[in-house]
Amino acid sequence: MQRALTLHQTTIGKKVVMALSGLVIVGFVIGHFLGNLNLYRGQEALDAYAHFLQGLTPVLWGTRLLLLFAFGAHIVAAFSLWSRNIKARGSRYKKHQDMATDYAARTMYWSGPILLLFVVYHLLHFTILPAHPGEVYRNVVEGFQNPWIAGVYITGNIALGFHIFHGIFSATQTLGVNHPRYNAYRRDAAIAISAAITLGNLSFPISVLAGFVTL
Ligand code: HEM
Predict the structure, then answer these.
(1) Strand, helix or coil at 135?
(2) Which pTM was predicted?
(3) Domain span at residue 34?
(4) Residues 6 or more apart in contact with residue 108 via CB below 8 angstroms
(5) How many CB atoms lie within 10 A of CB 14?
(6) In this predicted model, what pLDDT tens digit does every residue of 40-69 receive, in sequence order?
(7) In a domain, 189, yes or no
(8) Angle between helical axes of 11-36 and 147-174 (0-180°, round to 10)
(9) Residues whose CB is less than 8 angstroms from the CB of residue 29 and which lie 6 or more positions away in sequence, other chains included
(10) What residues line ligand 1, using a CB cutoff of 6 Å?
């Protein structure tokens, strides 16, 4: 007898999980970027902002749990869609007609793993093993003065830009905004949001490397 499938076991269900968890993560990334703008207001402002957030213990841990859950669901659903896709193709080496969705999916499959590595590095660098605990401004500026570390952040944030551009575009499609009249706006919105976040985030390591932000 055929077992009833729960929503998250179907392809569309997995895409809904990807879309909703992705939107939670993008929401965090926008808030995180806006908070990081305190770097330009100087050492006191950034450190005071970080200490303020650390003082909001329930909010901090609530956000961490939500993010952990969103990242976990996003990665598990991505892996499952990817393996389903490979099986459906028969042989992954067989030549097949490339479609627009294939192009988007391919972008996600290189930018996703780069981003995952970046986030693990980023957490170790600033949150788990910071060079100077409690001195967020000093950790950021000293970190980005090293061109290799700045390079890791630049690479990670370029991958982030591609990933959220395609992510926002496909998430809005999965969640039902797919109509010829709105598709151009969906694309423009995805470009505007991903470009703003990417250029903003890239400005941090570049400003330090260029000497605009110093200790
Ligand atoms: C150049 C861009 C970025 C800068 C300058 C930056 C800076 C920072 C800093 C300084 C912290 C530590 C804050 C503290 O200890 O109080 C932090 C934490 C964090 N960042 Fe970033 N970040 C950047 C990009 C990103 C991106 C793209 C993501 C995710 C895709 C991300 C995810 C996180 C997470 C999850 C934490 C840990 C928050 C916590 O639980 O304490 N960051 N970031």
Answers:
(1) coil
(2) 0.90
(3) 7-93+100-209
(4) 78, 163, 166, 167
(5) 21
(6) 999 999 999 999 999 999 999 999 999 999
(7) yes
(8) 140
(9) 160, 164, 197
(10) 29, 32, 36, 50, 64, 67, 119, 122-123, 126-127, 136, 140, 153, 157, 160, 201, 204-205
